[in-house]
Amino acid sequence: HAPISEDEFRLMQYLGYFNEDGVDNEIDMFEYVECQLLRLNLVSAQTLFEIKKRFIELDLDGGGTIDKSEILATSDAVYGKKVAKTEHSRIEHAVEYLKKLHTEMHEKKLLSRTRSVGEKRQSIDMLAEEERQRQAQLELNRSWKRIYKRSWFISACVFVAWLLSGIIFYSTWQGWDFWVSAYFTMQTGLSVGYGTPSEDDICYAPDELLSSGAWRYVKGEGMTYPSPAENGRGGCMAGDISKLFSVVLIVVGSSIIASTIGILAKNLMNPPGGWYKQLIQEEENNHFRKIAEETEGWIDD
């Protein structure tokens, strides 16, 4: 299991663990979970489950409590394994660290209580202005002005670039017109449609229809293979080069389709307008933090 962290050392101080005034030096699950929730200001079921799971990990002997020996046995994360450690130095370190934290919290609350109405209102106005600017930025990101940041727009641009690369290659290499090249690119790269025309047609095309780049791979010495009638496979080097490009086109095209499906699935699971759920969650968390800061309890004693 993971060693105890500095945050968990703080919880020991909240519980009075290192207080010498008659405490039992043990922390049960209820106390541990209560203090974790107070520190995190979170109350979700998933968070509660993770906290309980962490308590079980720290309870080395399975006795239902975390005692001093278990705390000290798992404190390497705070001090490091190469540093000489004693029980006194560990506890002293934790106490000093937690006193500093407690003092900062106390000073923050005192500052909040001593501020005038005007200062509090100014602080609220500043927070409201920051929230207004944040919401304005979110609205701008959702507008057409920021369409270039949308994942689906980027996918569409990549698809168009992929399609154009196929059209340019087949138009120049095979000598096909625009629409035939576009169709062949999509039916090959996306595995749709019929496998026509054949890429080996270039091997039997007249000289005037061959591009300068493909001519040498058709008419060059040894570039044309024996026909099936001559116990060969037919075709030529130019057709093989075209097929090799098609293989690359298929690999890239399948990656684009897979990415597009992932983006569509994400949009279906989190449709436009779902952003308000995150906003509501943030407001709830802020509310809990405010309650925790303003509540007088054993943590301030």
From TrEMBL:
Residue ranges annotated for the EF-hand domain, each copy included: 46-81
Keyword terms, alphabetized: Calcium, Membrane, Transmembrane, Transmembrane helix
Transmembrane parts of this sequence: 152-173, 244-265
Presence of the UniProt keyword Transmembrane in the record: yes
Gene Ontology MF terms in the entry: calcium ion binding
Pfam families: Ion_trans_2
Protein name: EF-hand domain-containing protein
